[in-house]
Amino acid sequence: MASALDHVVINVLRRMDEAEALFAALGFTLTPRGRHSLGSVNHLMMADGAYLELVGVPAEGRQRQDVLDSPFGLNGLVLKTDDADETHARLARTGLAPAEPVAFSRPVTIDGVETEARFRTVRLAPGRFPAGRVYFCQHLTPELVWRPEWLGHPNRFLGLSRVEVTSAAPATDAAAYAVAANATAEQTCGDLRVTLPDFVIDVVPGDRARFATLELVFDGLDAIGERARATPGAEWSETRTGSGAKLALPAFDLVLACRSAR
C-alpha cells in the first residue's frame, strides 16, 4: 500500500514571527510555538489527516542546519510511517540510500502540564529530490499532535489534497516519488501523477525543480476569501466558476490553491 502523507513543510527560516502573524490573520488556528531538540521552531495547522507546518530556526541558540540549507517557502513533503526502522530498510532496498533514523522531540503543554512530543524520521538525500526535502515521520506520541482544540479553524480549513511539483526531468522525478512512497506514477493529461491515500503529487515540466503549488481544502471558500482580501500581503483570486481560488503569499514565495469540499 502506498504511504500516506503526514504533513507538508513551509520553511520560513528566521521569519517565524511574521509567518505566524500572517497565517493567523488568514484564519488558521496555529499550535503554540514548538522548539525541537534538533534546533528548529515550528507552528502547526492541524487537520484530521495530514497537516501544514511552518518551520524555522530560533534567533538564538542551536540552529538546525538542514532547515538553514533548505529552500525558502514550500519545501518539504513528509510521508507517514509507523516504523522508521522498517521504512529505512525498505528504502535502502530500493537504492534511495536513506539516512539512518533520527530521534528528536519538542515540549508540549497540555492542560497546564508540560510533556514531550517525540518523533523518529528517515530522510532521503536532498539531491535525489531537487524540488525539496522528502522524508518519513513516525509519531511516537500522536495524541500530543492531533488535539481537538487545534483542529477547528476560523477559515474552515479541512486539509491538504495535492501538490504540483515542477521538474526539468518529470519522468525521473515522478518515478523517484513513486518509489519512495511505494506507489506508481501514472500519466494524466500529459503530466505525471503519484497517488497516495487522500493526496496526489503531480509532476509537471518546468524550468526549475520546486514545490510550486499546494492545494488546500476548505469547508467553503467564503471565510478564507474574506480573510485573504483583508490581509496585507495576501493576494486572492477566484476562478470564473467560483469553485476554486488561488492564494498567493509573495513574502514567503507561496502559491496555495484553495478548493471547497462542497
TrEMBL record:
It comes from the Bacteria. Transmembrane segments: none annotated. Coiled coil: none annotated. PANTHER family: BLL2707 PROTEIN, GLYOXALASE-LIKE DOMAIN-CONTAINING PROTEIN. Residues 5-177 form the Glyoxalase-like domain. InterPro entries: Glyas_Bleomycin-R_OHBP_Dase, Glyoxalase-like_dom. Signal peptide: none annotated. SUPFAM superfamilies: Glyoxalase/Bleomycin resistance protein/Dihydroxybiphenyl dioxygenase. The lineage of its organism: Bacteria, Pseudomonadati, Pseudomonadota, Alphaproteobacteria, Hyphomicrobiales. This is VOC family protein. Pfam families: Glyoxalase_3.
